[in-house]
Design brief:
The protein is built from ten helices and twelve strands. By secondary structure, the chain is an alpha+beta fold. It folds into four domains: 108 residues, no CATH class; 90 residues, Beta-Lactamase (2-Layer Sandwich); 77 residues; 145 residues, Heat Shock Protein 90 (2-Layer Sandwich), CATH 3.30.565.10. The strands form three sheets. Strands 2-1-5-4-3 form a five-stranded antiparallel beta sheet. A five-stranded mixed beta sheet has the order 7-9-10-12-11, covered by helices on one side. It has a two-stranded antiparallel ribbon with strand order 6-8. Helix 2 runs parallel beside helix 3.
Length: 446
């Protein structure tokens, strides 16, 4: 039996009782000499009316309490009244069921909200929101890591990352994208910027998505270079292998035939032996450059910067070529830990120190080289190698990282290209700038 039927029966009984009491009271009024009966009938009629009113009002109160609980978010309220009778126990259970459904729905929505919040926070694309009042806020981890050099929520506060970014945040139309260069703590980085428009709590919010692509471009460039070198070295070795073999055989044969009596044979022997040596030299040259096509294997671990730098200093001083070069080492903070492959990074840094020493000794009587290792606000590590040499011309600052490119007479063009590969394998960067001492400053970010 449902609430409506039980309620109707209870209402009918109370209504009948009230009508009966009223009829009794009316009869007592019409019959003389029943004063006491009139008082009893009036009392019964009043009691029946109050009971009827309380019965109807009870339902209204329960429904009103339910509505208030929903309005004020009190989803822990209880309405069940066991043994209440007249269907109110069923009504309480129904209202409790409604509260329970609302509570479960709220929990589901809260769980979905947490999921989407975590999804937005962990998405690898930096997201910046701009509300109707012009407040620009970083809304996920990628944005906070990328834009870590400013404070405040004004669009102008993003000026430290480049004027083009400020213009994109302020005015890039929804649905459009733009390629720009960001000025970040790891150096200049190309990035794509996209804009979208969303509705939020009656306001329109612009969402700016910033995706750095410099690492991907560098990786593609290095991969293309490696593929080209692999093809070239393969073809050169295929062509040079029989030439080298024939040159050695010819050199042996003419050496056996040369008795020192015929000048023409002696000249031919000299020419063939020169050819044989040069063929071997070309094969060695090609074999050396094949190492560029093998990406370095990175074994990252945490290690202390201070002993690492001290060991590099000892290696630098042990080379007698740069006994007159002053090496300055600075570590900030002294207990900083580096997250990298120590062997690969040591190979890169010692090569940069040697290049810096060469440049410094060619430009004055007081050659100086500096090695700086410092922690960055983003949690990365910056390593800088500077000198007081002549520096790298701005027009060549990108070319020096290309394979085979060198400005030194005895250079191979491998060192800086290898350094770039090592830094890319660490998800880092390497760039060259001008040092405060006037020479070159190589900046590595890990």
């Amino acid at each position: 039996m449902g609430f409506d039927r039980r309620f109707a029966i209870g209402l009918a009984l109370r209504l009948a009782l009230a009508l009966a009491a009223l009829a009794l009271f009316a009869w007592s009024l019409l019959t003389p000499g029943l004063a006491a009966a009139r008082i009893v009938a009036a009392t019964l009629a009043m009691g029946a009316g109050i009971a009827l009113w309380r019965y109807v009002r009870r339902t209204n109160l329960e429904v009103a309490r339910f509505i208030d609980a929903v309005r004020f978010g009190d989803l822990q309220a209880r309405f069940a009244r066991p043994k209440a009778g007249s269907g109110f126990d069923i009504l309480g259970e129904a209202l409790d069921g409604g509260i329970r459904t609302l509570r479960e729905e709220r929990e589901r929505i809260a769980e979905e909200t947490r999921f989407f919040s975590a999804l937005v926070d962990d998405v690898p694309v930096a997201l910046v929101t701009v509300d109707g009042e012009g407040r620009a806020e970083c809304v996920n981890k990628a944005a906070r890591r990328l834009f870590n050099r400013h404070s405040g929520v004004r669009i102008a506060d993003f000026e430290v990352y480049g004027a083009s970014l400020v213009q994109a945040i302020a005015g890039l139309p929804p649905g459009r994208h733009q390629l720009l260069i960001l000025s970040l703590d790891i150096g200049s980085q190309r990035a794509t910027v996209r804009a979208a428009s969303l509705a939020r709590l009656g306001d329109t919010v612009r969402v700016i998505a910033v995706q750095p692509i410099q690492d991907a471009l560098n990786a593609v460039e290095v991969a293309a270079q490696s593929d080209l070198i692999r093809v070239l070295t393969h073809e050169i070795m295929n062509s040079m292998t029989p030439v080298t073999s024939l040159a050695r055989t010819a050199a042996q044969l003419i050496a056996e035939a040369d008795r020192g009596q015929d000048p023409a044979i002696a000249d031919a022997r000299s020419a063939i032996e020169t050819l044989s040596r040069r063929a071997d030299g070309v094969m060695h040259f090609v074999e050396t450059y094949r190492t560029i096509t093998r990406p370095p294997q990175v074994n990252r671990r945490l290690f202390a910067a201070e002993p690492f730098a001290a060991e590099l200093g000892r290696l630098f001083e042990a080379d007698g070529h740069w006994a007159d070069v002053l090496l300055r080492i600075l570590i900030n903070p002294p207990d900083h830990l580096i997250d990298a492959d120590p062997d690969l990074i040591a190979q890169v840094v010692i090569n940069l120190l040697r290049n810096a020493a060469d440049a410094a000794t060619m430009n004055g009587d007081t050659p100086e080289v500096s090695l700086t290792i410092e922690a960055m606000r983003s949690g990365r590590t910056r390593i800088e190698v500077g000198d007081n040499g002549t520096g790298v011309p701005e027009a060549l600052r990108h070319d020096i990282f290309l394979p085979f490119f060198t400005t030194k007479k005895t250079g191979s063009g491998i060192g800086l290209s290898f350094a770039r590969q090592v830094l890319l394998a660490h998800d880092g960067s390497i760039e060259v700038d001008r040092s405060p001492a006037g020479g070159a400053l190589f900046r590595l970010v890990l």
